[in-house]
């Protein structure tokens, strides 16, 4: 009845613990010959014959409350199976650490409204002050102490104390590490009159809400087509039925603007993000589990939010790669959401302007309902996109980041009081440092990848392991030592310098992970751009998504080719998505918009389709190619990665894996095609050599079997670590 490392085990429940040990709670059990005491999750309690088997007794119960519902137990079991992880590992990842144990040093009293009370808020006979206190607490988006609550309502402690006595407010004492919690300012907004496209979309969604086994829906709407308003009105319908909705967005989109959009329309929302304190996370988890929260907005892991009566899941920007977790369990929130929606019989809405081919293909096959919103709100035209062929500039010897055409457009836009976004998906100053005399490239000693020069502190940095050293003045190769070492390649720092020198009288801000380290800096920067204190925004993909600034009339893509030549089946798809998304940041107001895309491959199909805003054209060209090469979304993929400090043992191990996979497939009479084993594109990372092997097959179960077979059959050398990534996204 509890989970061990790979499978579940049966234990007996001692009489005194009957009723206390229930599915979804933790227990202590004896494990192994030494009967070592370990923590385990109870996944089922049943009366059954256990024949001759000698079963051990559970030692103790750990939880007074159930941590995971039965739906969640089925879902985590499915995840363990699908992603080849152990059920225990999945449970550990799904239930926040803060919920499993408590931490912190300061004691505070936190207040909450029990859900039974929240349901009948309007009918309670209370004084005006008590009413205010109670509704404020019910709507609070952060943990509240008696002091916070009194401050917020501008009352004394008296009404709070009365309500606590009446048991309309409950309290608990918690240990916290810090007592500051995120709050959301709420400005009310009313529903918009839907456009024709939006109304049609909403109708299709509501048909699924009322279906007995709802189908997932792909909401394919161009940038600015008003998808959020459709989500909001669909959620309203779900709330009216007494149910909750979960809205998943990429972490980077969890901006105050996004929070505000939901908070302005719904009374009780919870926002979950990755840099929340343990106490806050626990508080939110319990609040959600109590049923008091109507809408949960969060990144990837919010798909596990313990809503008691789930009515709908929305996943915005479904193509975004941040929905995939890069540590065990390596789940994709989109797939998990689909599973959860299926188990709880609720609709899943996948919204995007650039669907992943996986989702698009499912819609084409009729597995998903497809809604198209091809027009922008108010019939605003999509911006004109032009490519600038940078090969021409090369021959003139021009080495800057900004072409003549882009320079002219920037100048014109500034004169017309417009704002500008410039995208460059490379941070740092110079992206490689090379000696022109001997050709030596300055590389990371641990990763063997070129170091990037960061001008702010004169360091060179490895973007993979963060190794830092002082930038060399002479060639570091002892045999050479030439003094004219060259810094080349353009990162956001160098771009910022170039823009500053060319347009010196206009304020500019740079957004990338170097300038946006401090919590809150992201919001602060966007606020400056919103209130037009800043005219030019320079940044990495961080600025490509979701921003809605009507005054942005020019978008420049400095180098559209950064991702185009990656050894990744999705290189074209990523490039198409990035250009389309960033282009969508302009032309959102009455002022129109213009996009310039600088590239060395203006004829590349992905770039050409993006300049025409033509997703259908892109998919039409890309899908046959994927089908011919038996790649995703037609066949499934598993990526096996091994690493270790000695190259031959990693290589040898991977050869064994490859042989065993082949043998297994042949035994089963199935077909798995293999790419590799080969050194991974990032050949060496943090001192470890890396090899990878790609498995493609139409038969998911067969590949699963093959990996389990390898785990069982192959003795892994002590210094080698390996993982299997199901439906991989990261190919580096
Ligand atoms: P998307 O997410 O599809 O890119 P948004 O949801 O950001 O589009 O909507 C684009 C803009 O249109 C937003 O400023 C939004 O407030 C506005 N909008 C959405 N629906 C309507 C509507 N029915 N009437 C008027 N404005 C709307
Ligand atoms: Zn490194």
UniProtKB/TrEMBL annotation:
<keyword id="KW-0378">Hydrolase</keyword>
<dbReference type="InterPro" id="IPR027417">
    <property type="entry name" value="P-loop_NTPase"/>
</dbReference>
<feature type="binding site">
    <location>
        <position position="475"/>
    </location>
    <ligand>
        <name>Zn(2+) 1</name>
    </ligand>
</feature>
<dbReference type="InterPro" id="IPR011545">
    <property type="entry name" value="DEAD/DEAH_box_helicase_dom"/>
</dbReference>
<dbReference type="InterPro" id="IPR001650">
    <property type="entry name" value="Helicase_C-like"/>
</dbReference>
<dbReference type="InterPro" id="IPR014001">
    <property type="entry name" value="Helicase_ATP-bd"/>
</dbReference>
<dbReference type="GO" id="GO:0006270">
    <property type="term" value="P:DNA replication initiation"/>
</dbReference>
<dbReference type="GO" id="GO:0003677">
    <property type="term" value="F:DNA binding"/>
</dbReference>
<dbReference type="GO" id="GO:0006269">
    <property type="term" value="P:DNA replication, synthesis of primer"/>
</dbReference>
<feature type="binding site">
    <location>
        <position position="465"/>
    </location>
    <ligand>
        <name>Zn(2+) 2</name>
    </ligand>
</feature>
<comment type="function">
    <text>Initiates the restart of stalled replication forks, which reloads the replicative helicase on sites other than the origin of replication. Recognizes and binds to abandoned replication forks and remodels them to uncover a helicase loading site. Promotes assembly of the primosome at these replication forks.</text>
</comment>
<keyword id="KW-0862">Zinc</keyword>
<dbReference type="InterPro" id="IPR041236">
    <property type="entry name" value="PriA_C"/>
</dbReference>
<keyword id="KW-0238">DNA-binding</keyword>
<keyword id="KW-0547">Nucleotide-binding</keyword>
<protein>
    <recommendedName>
        <fullName>Replication restart protein PriA</fullName>
        <ecNumber>5.6.2.4</ecNumber>
    </recommendedName>
</protein>
<feature type="binding site">
    <location>
        <position position="462"/>
    </location>
    <ligand>
        <name>Zn(2+) 2</name>
    </ligand>
</feature>
<keyword id="KW-0235">DNA replication</keyword>
<dbReference type="Pfam" id="PF18074">
    <property type="entry name" value="PriA_C"/>
</dbReference>
<dbReference type="GO" id="GO:0016887">
    <property type="term" value="F:ATP hydrolysis activity"/>
</dbReference>
<dbReference type="InterPro" id="IPR041222">
    <property type="entry name" value="PriA_3primeBD"/>
</dbReference>
<keyword id="KW-0347">Helicase</keyword>
<feature type="domain" description="Helicase ATP-binding">
    <location>
        <begin position="208"/>
        <end position="373"/>
    </location>
</feature>
<comment type="subunit">
    <text>Component of the replication restart primosome.</text>
</comment>
<feature type="binding site">
    <location>
        <position position="435"/>
    </location>
    <ligand>
        <name>Zn(2+) 1</name>
    </ligand>
</feature>
<dbReference type="Pfam" id="PF00270">
    <property type="entry name" value="DEAD"/>
</dbReference>
<feature type="binding site">
    <location>
        <position position="447"/>
    </location>
    <ligand>
        <name>Zn(2+) 2</name>
    </ligand>
</feature>
<keyword id="KW-0639">Primosome</keyword>
<dbReference type="InterPro" id="IPR005259">
    <property type="entry name" value="PriA"/>
</dbReference>
<dbReference type="Pfam" id="PF17764">
    <property type="entry name" value="PriA_3primeBD"/>
</dbReference>
<dbReference type="GO" id="GO:0006302">
    <property type="term" value="P:double-strand break repair"/>
</dbReference>
<feature type="domain" description="Helicase C-terminal">
    <location>
        <begin position="470"/>
        <end position="640"/>
    </location>
</feature>
<dbReference type="Pfam" id="PF00271">
    <property type="entry name" value="Helicase_C"/>
</dbReference>
<dbReference type="InterPro" id="IPR042115">
    <property type="entry name" value="PriA_3primeBD_sf"/>
</dbReference>
<keyword id="KW-0067">ATP-binding</keyword>
<feature type="binding site">
    <location>
        <position position="444"/>
    </location>
    <ligand>
        <name>Zn(2+) 2</name>
    </ligand>
</feature>
<dbReference type="GO" id="GO:0008270">
    <property type="term" value="F:zinc ion binding"/>
</dbReference>
<keyword id="KW-0413">Isomerase</keyword>
<feature type="binding site">
    <location>
        <position position="438"/>
    </location>
    <ligand>
        <name>Zn(2+) 1</name>
    </ligand>
</feature>
<comment type="similarity">
    <text>Belongs to the helicase family. PriA subfamily.</text>
</comment>
<dbReference type="GO" id="GO:1990077">
    <property type="term" value="C:primosome complex"/>
</dbReference>
<keyword id="KW-0479">Metal-binding</keyword>
């Amino acid at each position: 009845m509890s989970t061990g490392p790979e499978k579940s085990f049966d234990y007996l429940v001692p009489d005194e613990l009957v009723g206390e040990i229930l599915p979804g709670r933790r227990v202590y059990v004896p494990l192994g010959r030494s009967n070592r005491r370990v923590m385990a999750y109870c996944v089922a309690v049943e009366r059954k014959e256990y024949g001759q088997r000698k079963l051990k007794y559970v030692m103790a119960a750990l939880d007074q409350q159930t941590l995971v519902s039965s739906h969640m137990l089925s879902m985590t079991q499915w995840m363990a199976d699908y992603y080849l992880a152990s059920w225990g590992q999945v449970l550990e990842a799904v239930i926040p650490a803060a919920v499993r144990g408590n931490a912190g040093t300061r004691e505070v009293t936190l207040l909450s409204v029990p859900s039974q009370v929240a349901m009948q808020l309007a009918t309670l006979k209370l004084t005006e002050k008590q009413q205010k206190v109670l509704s404020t607490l019910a709507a609070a988006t952060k943990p509240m102490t008696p002091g916070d609550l009194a401050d917020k309502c501008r009352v004394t402690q008296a009404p709070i104390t009365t309500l606590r006595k009446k048991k309309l407010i409950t309290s608990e004492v918690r240990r916290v590490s810090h007592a500051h919690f995120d709050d959301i300012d709420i400005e009310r907004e009313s529903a918009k009159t839907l456009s024709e496209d939006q109304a049609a979309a909403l109708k299709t969604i509501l048909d699924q809400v009322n279906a007995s086994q709802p189908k997932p829906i792909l909401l394919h709407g161009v940038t600015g087509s008003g998808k959020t308003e459709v989500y909001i009105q669909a959620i309203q319908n779900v709330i009216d039925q007494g149910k909750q909705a979960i809205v998943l967005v990429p972490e980077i989109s969890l901006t105050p603007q996004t929070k505000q959009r939901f908070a302005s329309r719904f009374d009780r929302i919870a926002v979950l993000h990755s840099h929340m304190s343990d106490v806050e996370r626990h508080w939110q988890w319990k609040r959600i589990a109590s049923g008091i929260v109507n809408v949960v907005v969060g990144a990837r892991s919010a798909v596990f939010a313990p809503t008691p009566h789930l009515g709908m899941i929305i996943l915005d920007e479904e193509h975004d790669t941040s929905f995939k977790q890069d540590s065990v369990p390596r789940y994709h929130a989109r797939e998990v959401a689909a599973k959860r929606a299926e188990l709880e019989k609720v609709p899943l809405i996948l919204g995007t302007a650039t669907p992943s081919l996986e989702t698009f293909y499912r819609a084409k096959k009729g597995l998903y309902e497809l809604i198209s919103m091809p027009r922008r709100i108010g019939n605003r035209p999509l911006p004109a996109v032009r490519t600038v062929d940078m090969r021409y500039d090369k021959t003139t010897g021009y080495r800057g980041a900004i072409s003549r055409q882009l320079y002219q457009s920037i100048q014109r836009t500034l004169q017309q009081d417009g704002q500008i976004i410039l995208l460059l998906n490379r941070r740092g100053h110079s992206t490689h440092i090379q000696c022109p005399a001997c050709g030596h490239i300055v590389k990371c000693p641990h990763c063997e990848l070129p170091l990037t020069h960061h001008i702010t502190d004169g360091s060179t940095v490895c973007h993979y392991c963060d190794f830092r050293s002082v930038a060399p003045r002479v060639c570091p190769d002892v045999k050479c030592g030439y003094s004219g070492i060259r810094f080349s390649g353009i990162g956001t720092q160098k771009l910022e310098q170039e823009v500053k020198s060319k347009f010196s009288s206009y304020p500019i801000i740079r957004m990338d992970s170097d300038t946006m380290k401090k919590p809150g800096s992201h919001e602060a920067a966007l606020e400056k751009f919103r209130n037009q204190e800043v005219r030019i925004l320079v940044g990495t993909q961080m600025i490509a998504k979701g921003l809605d600034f009507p005054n942005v009339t020019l978008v420049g893509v400095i180098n559209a080719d950064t991702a185009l030549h990656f050894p990744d089946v999705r290189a074209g798809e990523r490039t198409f998505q990035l250009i389309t998304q960033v282009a969508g940041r302009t032309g959102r107001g009455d002022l129109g918009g213009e996009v310039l895309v600088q590239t060395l491959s203006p004829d590349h199909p992905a770039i050409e389709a993006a300049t025409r805003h033509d997703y259908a054209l892109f998919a039409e060209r890309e899908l046959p190619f994927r089908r011919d090469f038996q790649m995703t979304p037609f066949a499934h993929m598993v990526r096996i990665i091994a690493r270790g400090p000695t190259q031959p043992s990693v290589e040898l191990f991977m050869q064994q894996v490859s042989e065993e996979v082949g043998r297994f497939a042949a035994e089963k009479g199935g077909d798995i095609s293999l790419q590799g084993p080969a050194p991974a594109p990032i050949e060496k990372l943090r001192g470890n050599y890396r090899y990878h092997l790609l498995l493609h097959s139409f038969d998911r179960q067969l590949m699963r079997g093959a990996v389990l077979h390898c785990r069982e059959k192959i003795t892994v050398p002590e210094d080698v670590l390996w993982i299997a990534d199901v439906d991989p996204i990261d190919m580096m």
